[in-house]
Amino acid sequence: MKVLVVGIGELGRQIAIDLSSRGHDVVAVDVDEEKCKALSSEADLEVVNRDATDPSLYEEIELSSFDVVIASTDRDEVNLFVAAVAKEYGVSSIIVVTRTAKASELIEMLGLAEVTFPSPTISAKLVVSYIEGKYGVLQLTKVLSGKYGVYSIEVDSGDRAVGMRIKELRENLPKDVMILAVFNGERFVEPDDELVIEPGYVIILLAPIGREEEIESALR
Hints:
This protein has helices spanning 10-21, 33-42, 56-60, 76-88, 101-110, 124-131, 137-144, 166-172, 212-219; strands at 2-6, 25-30, 46-49, 68-71, 93-98, 115-118, 148-154, 178-183, 188-189, 202-208. Strand 8 and strand 9 (188-189) form a beta hairpin. The strands form two sheets. Strands 3-2-1-4-5-6 form a six-stranded parallel sheet, sandwiched between helices. A four-stranded antiparallel sheet has the order 7-10-8-9, with no helix packed on it. Helix 1 (10-21) crosses helix 6 (124-131). With 220 residues, it is of the alpha/beta class.
């Protein structure tokens, strides 16, 4: 899959690295020269040091050849511009990270993006999982429409979650809670349905703020 990531702050950078490491053809764009140099040394991908609001950029990189465009700069107006340009070039999947609810509403109202992600609660892993088809648009729209936080819970030996498969754990959790990743003590692993939870595993979740007790009771 050919992916353009515009804006390589902390989130955009991690998205670009994760997608590149998974075999996708990634091009990253940012106006900050130092960020571009740093990313070039970290990952096997093409990095372009340009202003994303320069229309000539998109002809030069042949934007119409991309499958996915991710606008993740720190300015909503730039992200809106990138989404509009990608739409004009016929890119089928456009994803925008927004800083404000108003920007998200405007982008959705204009039909410029497939989905918008609120920057305070989003993670690179969730964006990558969405791109690879692990979450659907409707599911994400429902989950991200309220005020959510990212939580991590370490599983102890006496917890009921021990021995559960991820599929069973999802069935025990509230419907609006997402398992983003599992840390097995050495590395982060995908929360596949058949993964068995062991003591010491750390589960990373996206959940509504104030639902900590429900989550705890499902795991403990």
